[in-house]
Structures are given as structure tokens and as C-alpha cells.
Amino acid sequence: MIASVLPTYSRAPLSFVKGEGSWLIEADGRRFLDLGAGIAVNALGHAHPALVDALTTQAQTLWHTSNLYEIPQQKALADKLVEHSFADTVFFTNSGTEACELAVKMARKHFHEAGQPERVEIITFSGAFHGRSSAGIAAAGSEKMTKGFGPLLPGFVHLTWGDHDAIAPAITDRTAAILVEPVQGEGGIIPMPDQCLKGLRDLCDEKGILLILDEVQCGVGRTGRLFAHEWAGIEPDIMMVAKGIGGGFPLGAVLATEKAASGMTAGTHGSTYGGNPLGCAVGGKVMDIVADPAFLADVNRKAGLFRQKLEGLVAAHPDVFHSVRGSGLMLGIKCVVPNGDVVTAGYAKEVITVPAADNVIRILPPLTISDAEIDEAIVRLDRAATSLETA
Ligand code: PLP
Questions:
Q1: Which residues pair with 247 in a beta bridge?
Q2: Residue 24: CA atoms inside 13 Å, Cβ hemisphere, count?
């Protein structure tokens, strides 16, 4: 008999009942060090007092009105995002994949309004993950995500990640945009080198097409800059954000330049819940904290520390770990043994990591993780690796 919860996940036998900062407490009382942060969502850890206050204050005041009316919390958050980014305008969603839907619609509409309605194609790259909506899976294009779900949304051109020579010839008079993650997350924590991101920006400018960045996983301070593309010194035309922006409350956004968003006039897009007062109250507080240069400087300091210690851990366990990679506190360890075994061994030692493609485990701690917790993470990961060596 099918489970009452649709069985689309293979879940670990863990059930957390409480979260405190970098820690998750299991129903049996065990305390797990959370290096997954709900897959890069709990940017400020669990139950951050400022976020609890923002949410409960809003919950006691007003939950929902719909986008038929002005939503001051939404305007306040949009103003903050505009102030701290390339963007001129923001649309709020509830998730990353909804942001993908709008990014694709916006790019197509832009060219439709510009008198080039044939420009509908979006170029994407292997290993990409843009969510599970119809546009998201079509954008990723992998068999794993698309098999059985056809007919797929047409208009995506899939190139091999790293095949630079293939990009320019793939841009035709039907191309609207290039869509890429500055750091692939699900694909195995693979940062796009700064010069490649710059190259994509130049190519988009040269060919008159849009650059869409998916910063759902790598944005909002995760890499040590507010947005990952800042490291490359470039700006996109459209950007998808989600996960960390809500700190655990479901919230996403599409940020865009005025030019890219020019076709999105009243009635062209909408969402019942997107930008609701609860989500935006929390998102506003997340932005106040994460956009502070001192906070980001500390993320970078801790990222350097964590990475250095992970390098030592990897060197100490060459039969388990292969190498460390990533950007800021978006780190990955490529494993020698199956990554699932490492994640499971971590559970036994009360430390949480998240698997990704390419036999990688992801280390995506709360950005608020302390130095002492980084030390403790290494101790627990070391125990997990040792248990696999002696197994
Ligand atoms: N884009 C990227 C880069 C992601 O990592 C994810 C989720 O993991 C998504 C899009 C989809 O976001 P959501 O699961 O909120 O729909």
C-alpha cells in the first residue's frame, strides 16, 4: 500500500524535533551538528532569535492579503534586494523552481516585446539543477529528472559544462538567454571559474542575449559574497534566488534589470502566496543580517578556516576522501568510497552532510557556524571516516 506521504524521497531514518543554531535535536534526544542547513536553506541556523521575532511579530499582526493589495513587507524586501544587487526590480516566489519558471518566461517575453519573438531558446549546461517544475526539469535536461515526464517544455539547448568551444556556435537567432549556476550545487559543488563567468557575460553582450544566473543555492552569502557572481565582477540580467533568502521560511525571488523585465507588465505573471507578509518579514531580516559587510567578512574567514581543516581531514583519510572544492561555505568533498556511505557514517557520528552528484558530500553549514563548531565538525567527520576505514 502506498505511504500516506507520496514516496518520492528515500529518507534517512531520522526525525528532528528541534533546532538550535547549528544543531538539530533528534526525537531520541541525540544532538546532530547540521552541516547541511536544510540544503543551504537555514542560512542563519535554526531558530535564530531575530528571525523568530520577525516571524512571530508578523504572525501576530497579519498573515496574508494576496497580491491584489500593496504588501509593505514585500516592498521593503524588494528595496533591500535592489539596493544590494544589480537588480532594478524583484518578483517574489515561494521556491527556487518557481523562480526558474519566471526567469524563463521573462527572458522570452523580453524578446517578444523587443520584436524578436523567435528568440525563445535558453542554453543550459550538463549537471545543472533548476528545480522540479516543468521548466526546471526541461532546463536541466538529464534523463534522471525528465524520464517519463514528457512531452518536455521545448526551447532548451543543453551543452556540456566546461565545453567552452561549444557555446558561441550554439547561440543562434533563436537564442534568448544562457542560464547557469555560478556554483553548481546538486551537480557536485562545482564553481564556474571567474574568467568563464566573465566570458559568458561578454558573449551574451556581444550576441545581444540575456544572462540568467541561478543563485538559488549559491546566493545570499553562501559563497562569502551576498551573491556568488560578485566574485567574477559581473552582473546578470536576471537572477533566481530562494533557499537562504527565507532562512527556512519558503521564499524565492527573481531579480532583474529594468530592461530584462520590460515585458512583465500587469497581468503577465502572478502568485497567490509569492511575497506574502510572513515570508517577506523573515526575508527582510535575513537581508539585514547577511548583507552586512562584517557578516560576510566573517563568513569568508570561517570558510577559509573550515576549508583548511577539511583539507587536513581529507589528507588523513585518503581511502575515504579524494579532495575538497567549493566556494565560501558551499563546500564539497569528493569521496573515494560511495558518498552515501559517508553521509550515513556521519549520521552514526551525529553530523549531517548532504550528498550531491559526482560522488560528493556537501558541507553547507549555517553561515552562523562558530569556530568551535567547525572544530567539532572535523572531529565528527573524522570519526565517520575512521568508521568506514575500519568497517
Ligand atoms: N536551482 C538550484 C540551483 C537549486 O539548488 C534548487 C534546489 O535545490 C532549485 C533551483 C530548486 O529550488 P526549489 O527546490 O526551492 O524549488
A1: 249
A2: 21
Is 325 within 8 Å of 190 (Cβ atoms)?
A: yes
pTM for the model stands at: 0.98
| DSSP letter for each residue of 264-328 | --TTS---SSTT-HHHHHHHHHHHHHHTSHHHHHHHHHHHHHHHHHHHHHHHH-TTTEEEEEEET
The three grid cell numbers given for residue 354, joined into one nine-digit string: 548532504
Q: Which amino acid is at 213?
A: L
Q: What are phi and psi of 278, to 5 degrees?
A: -65, -55
Q: Look at residue 269 in the predicted model and tell me its pLDDT.
A: 98
Cα 337 to averaged position of ligand 1 atoms, centre (Å): 27
Q: Which three cell numbers stand for residue 335?
A: 569521496
Q: Where are the beta strands (DSSP E) in 142-288?
A: 156-159, 175-180, 183-184, 190-191, 210-214, 238-241, 252-256
Residue 390 pLDDT class (50, 70, 90 cuts): confident
97 C-beta closer than 6 A to ligand 1? yes
Query: In angstroms, what is the span from residue 40 Cα to ligand 1's centroid?
Result: 10
Give me the residue label for grid cell 541525540: 30
For residue 131, the CA-to-ligand 1 centroid distance in Å is 5
For residue range 200-231, list pLDDT tens digits in order: 999 999 999 999 999 999 999 999 999 999 99
Give rounded-to-5 percent helix, strand, coil for the chain: 40, 20, 40
Pairing of strands 190-191, 183-184: antiparallel
> In this predicted structure, what is the pLDDT of residue 368?
98
Q: What is the overall mean pLDDT for the chain?
A: 98
CA of 216 to the centre of ligand 1 (A): 6
pLDDT (tens digit per residue) in 308-348: 999 999 999 999 999 999 999 999 999 999 999 999 999 99
Q: Which one of 94, 122, 216 would you pick to mutate in the ligand 1 pocket, going by the greatest count of ligand atoms within 8 A of its CB?
A: 216
Helix, coil or strand: residue 84: coil
The three grid cell numbers given for residue 283, joined into one nine-digit string: 526575508
Ligand 1 contact via 130 beta carbon (within 6 Å): yes
Name the pLDDT band for 363 (thresholds 50, 70, 90).
very high
